[in-house]
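Dear colleague,

Thank you for sharing your sequence with our group. We've completed the structure prediction you requested, and as agreed, I am returning the results in plain text so they can be pasted directly into your records. Please verify that the sequence below matches your submission; if there's any discrepancy, let me know and we will rerun it promptly.
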Amino acid sequence: MKVLGKRSIASFITSVLDVAWWGIAIGLVLLLVLLAGSTFLELRGDNLTFSVPVAVQLDAPVHGASGETSAHFEKLQGNLRFPARQGAFLSGSVAVVVLAFGYMFWIVNQLRHVFRSLSQGLPFVMANGRRIRWIGLAVIFGEFGRFAIVYFWSYYTSLHFVADGLRFAPSVDINPITIVAGLAILVIAEVFQQGARLQEDQSLTI
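Please find the predicted structure tokens below.
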């Protein structure tokens, strides 16, 4: 199977990205409706629940097979689901999710343009280098944004929830692999830029 051009891997990925683009667009519209409704709708009972990432410290002894041990639990991470209540936290959280979906929508849109040109057999165009650079920056800043959101949600739960034997703690969770991946994408963007310049120079020479 061909990598570039029509009926290639690039064209298949373009189709997948088109489906993802529409899925994110529909989700974004629904979230905007929920955001608008969260300011005036009255929430009763447990019909709408909210799940946020949390980090907990478990105060429980750990015993080895041979008896006493110095082993202990460190931070455990998971999700806490609780009934949503009208207020600033709900509206703010939905707004954050809307921004995240908008961020993903923009990244997928950039990828669609890149792979569309690849499926046309045109990899080295100047626009691709710029788009890939923006994608790399979006990956890096997106990871810092995810870190800030997770920290806020875990900090909120540490202030508003208690459980026997557990202590909720703010979660400091940043993935260095994602940062390195973003930097690698920036390098690839520069390769595309250099390839586009060389192709332009060759066309002018001819």
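Summary note from our side: The beta strands are 49-58, 63-64, 67-68, 75-83, 166-169.

Kind regards,
the structure core
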